[in-house]
Amino acid sequence: MKTLIDEAKKTIDQLFSKDKFQVGSAVKTKSGKIYTGISINCQKMNLCAEWTAIGKAFSEGNNDIEISVAIRKKDDGSYEIYPPCALCRELFITYCPNAEIIISENKKVKASELLPHPWIKKVRK
Ligand SMILES: [Zn+2]
Questions:
Q1: What mean pLDDT is predicted for residues 2-6?
Q2: DSSP letter (8 states) at residue 1
Q3: Which residues are near ligand 1, the ion (C-beta closer than 5 Å)?
Q4: What is the reported pTM?
Q5: Domain spanning 2-114: which superfamily?
């Protein structure tokens, strides 16, 4: 857990910008590979760091996300672990419901527990 938190901190440290990049994320796949991501904020939309980290993993063919964390760097230079927003919870429930999500320094929960009654997209035939 600490290694993943440190990777997310390192990622946000490298690119922190008050207006554009405030959150770093790290995910680990079952193979042990760690992917990092960063939040992308623009005029009309914000993309959470979890999406960019998971996007990197998926684009390299690794969709077996085992654990995830997001870290916000504050203006004073301190950090806080960010529990996932509702859209990220939808992302996790769709692609990795069994992944563990770090929500504090010493607590992680299963993704499916973060969104206990998910909306399931119906596939038209
Ligand atoms: Zn989010």
A1: 93
A2: -
A3: 48, 85, 88
A4: 0.90
A5: Cytidine Deaminase, domain 2 (3.40.140.10)
